[in-house]
Amino acid sequence: VTRFFAIALLSLAVAARGQKPVPAAEKAKLSILLPPGTGKPAQFYSSNLYEYIDGGAEAYHKFNMAAMVHREYKSKGVDMTVDIYDMGSPSNASGIYSSERSPAYHFIPIGEEGYSSEHTLNFLQRQFYVKLTAFGDKEAVAKMLNSFAGTISAKISKK
Amino acid sequence: MFDRRQFLKACTAAGGLGSLTAAAPALSIARYKSSPTAPDGIAEEARRLTRKSIEALGGMGRFVARNDIVWVKPNIGWDRAPEQAATTNPDVVATLVAMCFEAGAKKVLVSDNSCNMAERTFPRSGIQPAAEKAGAQVFFLDRRKFRRMAIKGKVLSEWEIYRDVVEANALINVAIVKHHSLCKLTLGMKNLMGVAGGERNRYHQQIDQALADLAAFLKPKLVVLDAIRVLTANGPVGGNLDDVKRKDTVIAGTDQVAVDAYGATLMGRKPEEIGYIVEANARGIGTMNFASLAPKMLEL
Questions:
Q1: Which helix (H) or strand (E) holds A14?
Q2: Are residues B136 and B73 in contact, defined by beta-carbon separation less than 8 angstroms?
Q3: What is residue B247's three-state secondary structure?
Q4: The model's pTM
Q5: pLDDT for A44-69, tens place per residue?
C-alpha cells in the first residue's frame, strides 16, 4: 500500500510539472535513430538539458521534451553534430519546431517539414525534432547534411 | 529602434561626429558606414570599430595599467562559426587583447565557461586562434578554480565564481548582441554568467535579479558589445544564417547598464523591455538612459 501511494505521489508530482517520465526502454530506443558513428551518443532529458543548451532549454521544457540524443561525427573534413529531440508527441514536436522556424527559411522536402542553411538542417517528423549542424567545406557540408537527414528520416519512418 | 536619422541627431547633440571632449565619456558607439561581406573586410571593420570605440573613451590606458593582468571575457559558449553570430566576433576580441598589451598589460587571459564543449567552441568561434595570435593566454576553465564567493545580492547570496577573474586587475566584458529565448536579449550583463559555475539554470526563474547581482559583484572596468553581426531569433544557440543581420556597430563603455540599454535599441527593443536592464537601473548599477551620458558617436 505504501509503495502504491509513493508511486501515485511521484506520478502526480511529475504530471504537475508537465513532464512525462521516460521509460528506460524508450531511452535506449532513441539512439537507434542515429546514423552509425564512432562517437559515443550523449542523452539529455528535461532535467539536464540546460547542460547542453543553457538558456535555451526552457523552450523545450514548454513543449514537454521527453529526451534528446546527441552525437558528434567527423568525416572527410566535415565536423557534424546530430541532435534528435523526442518531444513525446507529434503536436509537441510541431510546437517547438514551429516556434523556431521562419517563413523566410529555405525549406526542403524532408520529413513533415524541414529547412536548411549553410551549416544547419532541421526537420520535423512524427514526434521527433531533428537538428543537424556541420562545418567544413561548403559542398561537403551540404552533401553530408542531406545524407544524414535522409538516413535519420528513413529510420524514423521504420520506427 | 535607433535608426540612421536618430543616430545622426544624437551625434549632433553629442557635439558632432568624431569630436573628442576633455572629459572622458562613459559610452561610445562606433558604426561602420559600409557593410563589407568578404571575411577580410569584416575583420578590418571589427578591428577599426573596436579600436575607435575604445579610443573615444580615452584609450585602453584608462582601464589597463602597466603590468596588469587583464581578463577579457567574450562569449565562447556555443559550437558556432563567427558568421552564425552566437559568439563574440574574434577580431573584436583580438583587438582588445592587442590594445591591452599596448597599454602595458603583463598578461591577458581569455576564457569562458562554455555551454557546448570548449574543445569545439574555442576553435570554432575563431576566438582562440585570433586571441592567441594577439598574445593572449586562451585556456579552458579549470573546474577546481571555481570558488564559492559571497555575492550578497538580492537572489545570489553566494555563488561559484572563477577565482582568477576576481583576482585579475581588470575585467573586460566583451559580448555579442543576440536574441535570447529566456531573457529576450543577451547583452553585456548576461555575458557575465560565463564566469559563474555550479548549476547555472538554478536561477533561471529569477534571472533578471541574478544578472544584476552578478553585474554589481563583478564590476567590469570596460564593457564592449559586438553588434557587427547580430542574431535576431532562436538565441542563444542560433545556427541558421537567415536569423543573422548586420548592424555594423561596436559599443563600448564604463556604464554596463547604459551599454546594454543602447544594445537593446539595436535589436528593436526599448531598454525598459529587458528585465535585467530595468533591475540594474533600479539598483543604481548604471543608467538605462544612455542618452544622458552624451555618448560619443562615431561613423567610420
A1: helix A2-16
A2: no
A3: strand
A4: 0.86
A5: 998 889 888 877 888 899 999 999 99
Q: Is B202 on the interface with A (CB under 8 A)?
A: no
Q: Which of A40, A45, A54 is the best substitution to test chain B (most B C-beta atoms within 10 A)?
A: A54
- The pLDDT value recorded for residue B22 is 54
B202-A84-A63-A142 Cα dihedral, nearest 10 degrees: 110
- For A23-27, A46-50, B156-160, which range has the lowest pLDDT when averaged over its residues? A23-27
Neighbours of B262 (CB within 10 A): 27
Q: Is ipTM > 0.85 here?
A: no
CA distance to partner chain B, nearest, from residue A52 (Å) = 6
- Model pLDDT for residues B2-45, shown as the tens digit of each residue: 555 555 455 444 444 444 445 789 999 999 999 999 999 999 99
Place of cell 567545406: A137
Q: Are B72 and B108 in contact (CB under 8 A)?
A: yes
A79 in contact with B at a CB cutoff of 8 Å? yes
β-partners of residue B180 are B184
Q: Coil, strand or helix: which one is B157?
A: coil
Long-range contacts of B216-219 (CB under 8 A, 24+ apart): B216/B153, B216/B280, B216/B283, B216/B285, B217/B149, B217/B151, B217/B152, B217/B153, B217/B156, B217/B161, B218/B161, B218/B165, B218/B166, B218/B171, B218/B173, B218/B192, B219/B171
Cell representation of residue B10 = 544624437
Answer whether B131's CB lies under 8 Å from B90's CB. yes
- Band (pLDDT 50/70/90 cuts) for residue B211 is very high
Residue A23: which pLDDT band, with cuts at 50, 70 and 90?
low
Residues B167, B153, B64: CA angle, nearest 5 degrees: 30
Contact B97, B135 (CB under 8 A): yes
Cell numbers standing for residue B128:
582562440
Does an H or E element contain A128, and which? strand A128-135
Give chain B's end-to-end CA distance (angstroms, integer). Answer: 20
Q: Which of B165, B161, B170, B119 is nearest to B140 (CA)?
A: B119
Partners of B116 on chain A (C-beta within 8 Å) are: 52
Strand pairing report for B184-186 and B107-110:
unpaired
Q: What are the cell numbers at B195? A: 564566469
What is the residue type of B117? M
SS3 A106: strand
What is the spatial distance between Cα B179 and Cα B184, in angstroms, rounded to a whole number?
6
